[in-house]
Amino acid sequence: MSEIEIRELETQFEWADAFFVIEQLRPRVNAEEYFEYLEQMTTTGYRLFGLFVDDELAAVAGVNIGVNMYYGRHLWIDELVTDSKHRSEGYGAQLMAYLEDWASERGCNKVALSSGLQREEAHRFYEEKVGMEKASYVFTKELG
């Protein structure tokens, strides 16, 4: 039986391990940018969590607690990715369940995320495996 542990990743060493999983979701972000972003993001509340299977990092989530008039106090999931060699083993759902409990313990009434239109498998996962609903479209515009 595999030993599963979920914990916050707080050190540069842990962040470095997480990069190899995060880059599967964010291939346009190189290692230097990744560390620069983390340095900035953690100052505004961003937290990084990892799910380990027998001490091997199998899934990563980056989150922020926010408050707005649309969701109230909520957990926003910026990144949720399972390492490609561990997909379809239930680790993403376990990490989501952990995050839901973590958010609830901190007074959040909702969990939300945005997922690219092309990520149809991820959309099925969110709807069928973790019970999320499609709530809106997100619109973006490049500046400069």
Automatic annotation (TrEMBL):
Q: Which Pfam families match?
A: Acetyltransf_1
The UniProt record lists the N-acetyltransferase domain at 4-144
Reading the lineage from the top rank, the first entry is Archaea
Alphabetically, the GO molecular function entries are:
acyltransferase activity, transferring groups other than amino-acyl groups
**InterPro entries on file:** Acyl_CoA_acyltransferase (IPR016181), GNAT_dom (IPR000182)
* Record-given protein name: GNAT family N-acetyltransferase
**Which species expresses this protein natively?**
Halonotius terrestris
* Taxonomic lineage of the native organism: Archaea, Methanobacteriati, Methanobacteriota, Stenosarchaea group, Halobacteria
